[in-house]
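Usage

Read records sequentially. Each one opens with the input sequence:
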Amino acid sequence: MSAVHNRSTGRNTSAARKEKHAIQASCSRASEYLVPTLFVVGAGLCLWETREMSQLGAVFPAVISLVVIVAGLLRLGQLGLRGVVASQERGSDPSSDPSSDSGSGSTPRRLALVGIMLAWALALPWLGFLLTGLASFVGLMMVAQYRRWHPRRLAGHLLTGAVLVAFFYALFALVLNVPLPAGRWFTL
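and closes with the structure output:
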């Protein structure tokens, strides 16, 4: 694909398009690459240590290590494909940056996060893992979303939440044989 020079802005359109989809660094560009790299290296070391464990004892750490390695590599791939822009480069208006801590809304969001996690922990024995996992995901999603809700975004988030909760339920309950709470109300 050839880059087209835009005379009004003095920039080529492919570079502007790439910057539009670039991931904004929370601290620095280097930290965006460093954190997933450290996770991959740390999980690789944990995976290496499982070779000295019993076969049954190594299942859980090996699976978690592999999940962390895959997630870290996916994040590094995403950063490589989309690029990273420093937080100062992406917009000159700091009030438009949702990650800036200007004091508006951050305390209620933090309190809501603690409240949702506390409600999840208290409801887990009564409602079970699946129901509380889905409910807490929806609650946390509502607290974390700072942009306007659109039907497509909501559907994507709800589908992602259902897939994640089902994946972790299958991983722990079926693959790793970890007993998860079924919920007292459903076992009566």
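Summary fields computed downstream for this record:
- DSSP finds seven helices and four strands in the chain.
- The chain has two domains: 6-92, 106-187.
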